[in-house]
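Tokens for chain A. Residues wanted.
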């Protein structure tokens, strides 16, 4: 069985790749925490999270089970900062809470306490406190790394559009489960759900996800449906364990960090060019940093070894983006001193 998304010419023109929505990605992390999928990749992360979660997390985990439906007000695909969206959940209208829970009840029985949620302000605030706590434990420490990985993924997707059009982009989202049969995108959902979605000129957002186990569609997202797909590059592959805290900036007043010895003016110019133009190719990097392509490639290799840059490949092209550590180092170092040159 497959799920079918029907495109028009207008839909293709309005389809684009977007950054993960914080609450949508949090819901994927919550589901992954409660499943046994990818034990190598997520095993250490699960153990660390389970040790840190407090009892108030239980309400959230009950409403976002490892499979099935969850209330949309907790898993919205809306864009915004995590802080803004978590605060927005607290002010969800009672009618919205009641409607979302009724929709969930059509498919599965929600927890017994949830039937009081729309009418019990204190109960709703306890749920929101639990959601804040779950965000802090499950996703907040990894958000910077996720953003960097997404920047790499989006750089590759943009190249796919440039070289093969939207058709190449749609086909490459998840080759194991997705097939482009013009003008219909067919894919096998992890849930096995079968159905049809006519976009009707709205287009669709493609959203890469660190925790997605396969393609999933949010047909109620506004203003466009959202197709979430797994990040597909080596730094977040199924063989890469997820338990890496974000890089820390050096303490205030510390003159030199462990990576300072890497940064002559040319190498700093290369790092700055990558930070200002994430996803640039080596040829583009050379032009923007005022170096020859072989020199740009050599500097990028050193920066990558130091953890300041990550590189992914699209066909025969290397695409460079900064890591959180590289960005933090540039922010601490201040503006460029001048043209490249030792």
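Reply:
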């Amino acid at each position: 069985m497959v799920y079918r998304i029907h495109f028009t010419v207008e839909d293709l023109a309005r389809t684009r790749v977007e950054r993960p929505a914080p609450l949508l990605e949090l819901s994927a992390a919550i589901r992954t925490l409660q499943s046994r999928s990818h034990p190598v990749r997520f095993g250490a992360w699960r153990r660390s999270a389970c040790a840190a979660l407090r009892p108030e997390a239980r309400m959230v985990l009950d409403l976002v089970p490892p499979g099935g439906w969850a209330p949309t007000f907790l898993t919205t695909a809306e864009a915004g900062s995590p802080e803004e969206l978590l605060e927005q959940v607290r002010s969800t209208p009672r009618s919205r809470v009641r409607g979302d829970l009724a929709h969930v009840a059509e498919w599965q029985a929600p927890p017994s306490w949830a039937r009081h949620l729309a009418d019990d302000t204190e109960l709703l605030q306890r749920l929101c406190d639990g959601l804040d706590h779950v965000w802090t434990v499950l996703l907040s420490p990894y958000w910077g790394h996720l953003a960097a990985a997404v920047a790499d993924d989006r750089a590759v997707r943009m190249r796919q559009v440039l070289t093969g059009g939207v058709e190449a982009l749609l086909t490459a989202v998840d080759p194991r489960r997705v097939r482009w049969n013009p003008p219909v995108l067919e894919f096998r959902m992890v849930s096995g759900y079968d159905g049809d979605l006519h976009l009707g000129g709205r287009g669709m957002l493609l959203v890469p996800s660190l925790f997605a186990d396969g393609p999933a569609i949010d047909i109620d997202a506004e203003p466009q449906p959202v197709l979430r797909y797994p990040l597909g590059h080596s730094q977040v592959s199924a063989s890469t364990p997820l338990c890496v805290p974000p890089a820390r900036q050096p303490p205030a007043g510390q003159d030199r960090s462990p990576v300072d010895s890497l940064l002559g003016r040319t190498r700093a110019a290369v790092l700055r060019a990558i930070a200002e133009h994430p996803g640039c190719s080596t040829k583009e990097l050379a032009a923007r940093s005022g170096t020859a392509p072989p020199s740009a490639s050599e500097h990028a290799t050193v920066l990558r070894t130091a953890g300041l840059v990550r590189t992914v490949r699209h066909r025969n092209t290397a695409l460079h983006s900064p890591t959180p550590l590289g960005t933090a180092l540039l922010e601490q170092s201040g503006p460029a001193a001048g043209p490249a040159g030792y």
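The CA atoms of residues 43 and 241 lie 8 Å apart. DSSP finds twelve helices and eleven strands in the chain.
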